[in-house]
Amino acid sequence: QLVESGGGVVKPGGSLRLSCAASGFTFSxxxxxxxxxxxxxxLEWVARIKSKGDGGKTxxxxxxxxxxxxxxxxxxxxxxxxMNSLKSEDTAMYYCTTFxxxxxxxxxxxxxxxxxxxxxx
Amino acid sequence: xxxxxxxxxxxxxxxxxxxxxxxRASQSISSYLNxxxxxxxxxxxxxIYAASSLxxxxxxxxxxxxxxxxxxxxxxxxxxxxxxxxxxxxxYNTPYTFGQGTKLEIK
Lengths: 121, 107
What we know:
The complex is a heterodimer of chains A (121) and B (107).
Chain A: E1 2-5, E2 8-10, E3 16-22, E4 31-37, E5 43-49, E6 58-60, E7 68-73, E8 78-83, E9 92-102, E10 105-111, E11 115-119
Parallel strand pairs in A: 2-11
Antiparallel strand pairs in A: 1-3, 3-8, 4-5, 4-9, 5-6, 7-8, 9-10, 9-11
Chain B: E1 4-7, E2 10-13, E3 19-25, E4 33-38, E5 45-49, E6 53-54, E7 62-67, E8 70-75, E9 85-90, E10 97-98, E11 102-106
């Protein structure tokens, strides 16, 4: 199970930190991602962090690179998304999801319920 | 970046119909293609992974196939609970990309 928190209304240029608490699986071995969905729009992958055992590497989508930082705390089974220099186009529902790898296949599952971020003056 | 072109963007169908949704990748992605269903106000739900493998608990009326860089999601006999938006997604490399979605509506 994944439970996101930390969303809210923030002014352009502001910052916000999203959290995602995981349970029911071995979090320390999981690769975690954030995916967002602007109102009425499609899904957009935002960021991914590998497990520490797999090197802990992070990757970002171009629109957020340099502004967003994904991190993890395996002691509390939590993944974070620090969002700085927010823009109106960052307004979206943000979903936390596990990038499940099984053999040569991989996919996003499970997903949290989402947390809404609104960037507005 | 790998572009995923999904068609149609919307589709009207009736209960019991067979429907097909197509997704084309801009380059070879092997079988790194997944399908999700999303209902209004809900998180996406995984239906198909690795192009044709049915996720546990998903009804067998859903199926996926691959031909080169073209991928297809088929619903063999639409049920009322299947009216939703469907997305394809490539997991071949980052940035992971989704198709623009297909909204399946009741005729």
